């Protein structure tokens, strides 16, 4: 196992930790999680378990129909409780990839750069988040282009809830899982909490990282299940552009590439302000003006309509904080 081999890489052989002890789980959590993934995948191969295993892997709640009159029938996906199974599966998947990225990329860079223990933790955090935000920018940008949102901002609110609750495959994948990277947007932020244990994060670092993860977890989960997915998609795209620039610059800073880092932080300062301003404009435009024209006095979970004044105001205030 990769973590165990790394721990035994010194001159003298270290005693292996007791089976299923805390140290054993921490050292081998990547291998343990990959085994859990394989169990579910193998379940697809047998007729008796394939239906159950597919709930964890395959997007659920799909129908094929023309969403807009005179358009071609297409597969669309809705939200539901079975999505929780997918979130659990891809949370485990991201933990596995997290361990692989840490072992084969970030740890090697850390040893090459001779970082201190404090810098190693921050370097690893920025390395993981740089990869995640880079993927998110690319995927969300592709979806917005596919939905033509970049040329028609009214798509952020027109057709809510009927059109918005029926997501394209890519939009559902963005919120539930990314097939070739084995993680979900929601699951990524959910997986952060067990990672605090696996990475032995110091207590003074847990609180800010927990708050950061909880904010994203709440925002993405609420947007997904309340069918405000298009607005969330646009806001997350902007946020991840800013975060991607920040964490890339932070990596250069910890690598002591001072000139590049100095320029990067200047660029990030500008990007940060632009992103905050653009996010506020989109949130006000959608939640205060756009969706108000189709407001409902009460929540209608059957039809997926959560466009009440109270919910919109709460979301708007949360965004403008």
TrEMBL record:
**GO BP terms, alphabetized:** protein insertion into ER membrane; SRP-dependent cotranslational protein targeting to membrane, translocation
Membrane-crossing ranges are 35-58, 84-106, 127-145, 169-190, 210-226, 232-255, 267-291
The UniProt entry, under Pfam families, shows: TRAM_LAG1_CLN8
**Quick one: where is this thing mainly located?**
membrane
Q: Where in the cell is it found?
A: Membrane
Keywords annotated in UniProt = Membrane, Protein transport, Transmembrane, Transmembrane helix, Transport
Question: In the UniProt record, which is one GO cellular component term?
Answer: endoplasmic reticulum membrane
At the top level of its lineage, which domain of life is listed?
A: Eukaryota
UniProt cross-references to PROSITE patterns, sorted A to Z: TLC (PS50922)
Q: How does it sit in the membrane?
A: Multi-pass membrane protein
Q: In this protein, which residues make up the domain named TLC?
A: 121-321
UniProt family annotation? Belongs to the TRAM family.
By what name is this protein known?
A: TLC domain-containing protein
Task: Give the species.
Answer: Onchocerca ochengi (Filarial nematode worm)
